[in-house]
């Protein structure tokens, strides 16, 4: 192992992602998209893709570029591909959104916007998958958290492939006209592979290592994560392979999805048990804010599992799918990501700034770069807002939903400011702030 | 049959002391063919390398309460059952570590801070040995920048990463 360097553009990924998140939140507060408009309509698709690609996928890609090398103790395959990938993802998404806006009649654009945007996005994700995939390939046999990431990378390929085909159908291209039913039955697979496989499964794998690291819990047991891994892979395989087969045979999609759902539930239960086990075995008694908030986010995932099972049992899943998707995207994924950004950004900033002088002059601790008491209130607002918004969707209160998302937006702004303060070393007390030899970091680019 | 001299470092460690010099002093007093029986509150992994470089094989036994009894014997080749030190770790050509750190229970990134601070106090060519709960991937980056060399690897139990660093000469 030659050591992990800092990935130069990680913070840029995070910043672009947060801007997309804020934009999506502001549009929702303004009443754009679901629940004011149809859940499958173009306006809702704008919001959904802003959150899932602009925010969650971008932030996850950035975090993986920094974290996969740590996970497998190998350097990133090609650091020089990271900035082009960010440009392709951002540019591709912008064009895709313009395509959805055209579809919704807000904008008079050419019909090929959707396939062009999708192609750029596929190129961006291909660069990301190739880069991370080659890094993982060099580290076989993979430790279990890295296997979750590998499965997640496979899922983003499935998601992107379906997305590309949808763009052809929606744009009215001749080739797309051959699959008229694809949109109806393919959307669940696109969404499950994206939200479930790529975003959730990857986040689960990474969190095994992050939680063990931050709680000082032993994670060397080979059995740790095995059931969650096996059941999760089974769920994704049944969902994607079974789903595609069912599409081809034009029957049985619901059965494949039900089986996949049952396996996914088992995976989530096993994951919850593992996290609880790590929590009980931890050596660090007082947990830092990022770990506590990760556990709160996990509670949202538990709520999703329970609510989904209940809605399936009562047959009311179709009418509540919007609320569940919101809880997955915000209460679970966004909450988990924000909690971990609150650790990752100060840590990288600390390493970048004080690493070169560490041991030679007194330096602050990582905790000195943040103010947990002040930040806690933003997290409380964030989770309270997310849960309230879910509740409002469940009871069909559109205005209440927008008010709750306004609270979430405020919390996002507050947390964004905390991250900027960490980059600027604004909370580090003198005289430790800038010892001789240390330089204030750039806001958006890491020195490595 | 090997005769053993007993050294119990448990009270020394409990009192916050440094047992390394006492073990080395006991080693000096051994007669040819004699062994050393060590009682420790944890498995003294770094010591295995040091002792191996002095020609001692070891045999370990876990006692109650996580404590360990380690028997070090002059290695005359008759001691095949002993756990061999990983090749990458045996610092045959490196001097014995001057500093030993057990950083396994520290919050990250404190282990890294302590190692870098301790390295600053060493003379060129001297070495430091540290026990960690993980592979310190971010530390390697700083060590490389400062021109230090290191050797490391997980112990066979996979729960401890043992790192030896040599100050650039």
From TrEMBL, chain A:
Regions that span the bilayer: 12-34, 46-73, 85-107, 113-136, 148-175, 187-206, 227-248, 254-272, 293-315, 321-342, 375-393
Entry superkingdom: Bacteria
Oxidoreductase in keyword set: no
InterPro entries: Cyt_c_oxase-like_su1_sf
Protein keywords: Membrane, Transmembrane, Transmembrane helix
Name used for this protein in its record: Cytochrome C and Quinol oxidase polypeptide I
TrEMBL record, chain B:
Domain DUF2249: 7-72, 101-153
Pfam families in the record: DUF2249
InterPro entries in UniProt: DUF2249, TusA-like_sf
Protein name: Uncharacterized conserved protein
Species per Swiss-Prot/TrEMBL record: Bradyrhizobium shewense
Lineage summary: Bacteria, Pseudomonadati, Pseudomonadota, Alphaproteobacteria, Hyphomicrobiales
């Amino acid at each position: 192992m030659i050591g992990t360097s800092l990935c130069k553009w990680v913070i840029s990924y995070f910043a672009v992602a947060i801007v997309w998140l804020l934009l999506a939140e502001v549009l929702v507060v303004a009443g754009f998209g679901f629940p004011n408009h149809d859940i499958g309509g173009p306006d809702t698709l704008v919001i959904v893709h802003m959150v899932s690609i602009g925010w969650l996928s971008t932030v996850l890609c950035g975090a993986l570029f920094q974290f996969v090398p740590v996970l497998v103790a190998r350097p990133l395959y090609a650091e020089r591909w990271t900035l082009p990938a960010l440009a392709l993802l951002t540019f591709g998404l912008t064009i895709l959104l313009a395509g959805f806006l055209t579809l919704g009649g807000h904008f008079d654009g050419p019909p090929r916007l959707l396939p062009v945007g999708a192609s750029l996005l596929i190129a961006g994700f291909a660069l990301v998958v190739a880069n991370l995939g080659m890094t993982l390939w060099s580290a076989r046999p993979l430790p279990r958290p890295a296997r979750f990431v590998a499965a997640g990378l496979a899922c983003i390929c499935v998601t992107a492939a379906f997305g590309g085909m949808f763009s052809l159908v929606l744009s009215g291209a001749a080739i797309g006209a051959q699959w008229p039913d694809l949109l109806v039955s393919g959307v669940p697979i696109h969404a499950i592979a994206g939200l479930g496989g790529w975003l959730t499964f990857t986040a689960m794998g990474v969190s095994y290592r992050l939680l063990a690291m931050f709680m000082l819990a032993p994670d060397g047991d080979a059995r740790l994560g095995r059931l969650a891994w096996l059941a999760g892979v089974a769920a994704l395989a049944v969902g994607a392979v079974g789903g595609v087969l069912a599409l081809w045979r034009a029957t049985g999609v619901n059965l494949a999805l039900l089986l996949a759902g049952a396996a996914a539930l088992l995976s989530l239960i096993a994951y919850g048990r593992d996290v609880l086990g790590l929590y009980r075995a931890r050596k660090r008694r007082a947990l830092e804010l990022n770990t506590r908030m990760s556990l709160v986010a996990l509670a949202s995932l538990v709520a999703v599992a329970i609510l989904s099972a209940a809605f399936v049992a009562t047959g009311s899943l179709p009418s509540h799918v919007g609320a569940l998707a919101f809880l997955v995207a915000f209460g679970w994924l966004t909450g988990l990501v924000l909690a971990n950004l609150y650790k990752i950004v100060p840590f990288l900033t600390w390493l970048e700034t004080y690493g070169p002088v560490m041991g030679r002059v007194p330096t602050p601790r990582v905790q000195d770069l943040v103010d947990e008491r002040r930040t806690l209130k933003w997290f409380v607002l964030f989770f309270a807002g997310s849960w309230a918004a879910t509740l409002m969707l469940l009871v069909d209160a559109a205005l209440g939903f927008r008010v709750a998302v306004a609270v979430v937006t405020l919390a996002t702004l507050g947390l964004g400011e905390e991250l900027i303060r960490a980059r600027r070393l604004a909370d580090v007390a003198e005289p430790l702030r800038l010892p001789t030899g240390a330089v204030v970091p750039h806001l958006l680019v890491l020195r490595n | 049959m090997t005769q053993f001299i007993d050294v119990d470092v448990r009270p020394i460690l409990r009192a916050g002391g440094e047992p390394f010099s006492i073990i080395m002093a006991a080693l000096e007093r051994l007669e040819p063919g004699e062994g050393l029986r060590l009682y420790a509150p944890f498995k003294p992994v770094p010591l295995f390398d040091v002792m191996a470089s002095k020609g001692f094989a070891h045999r370990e036994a876990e006692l109650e309460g996580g404590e360990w009894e380690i028997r070090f014997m002059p290695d005359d080749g008759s001691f095949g059952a002993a756990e061999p030190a990983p090749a990458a770790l045996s610092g045959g050509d490196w001097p014995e570590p001057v500093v030993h750190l057990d950083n396994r229970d520290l919050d990250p990134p404190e282990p890294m801070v302590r190692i870098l601070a301790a390295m600053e106090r060493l003379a060129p060519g001297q070495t430091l040995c540290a026990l960690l709960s993980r592979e310190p991937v971010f530390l390697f980056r700083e060590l490389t920048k400062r021109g230090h060399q290191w050797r490391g690897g997980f112990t066979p139990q996979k729960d401890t990463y043992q790192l030896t660093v040599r100050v650039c000469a």
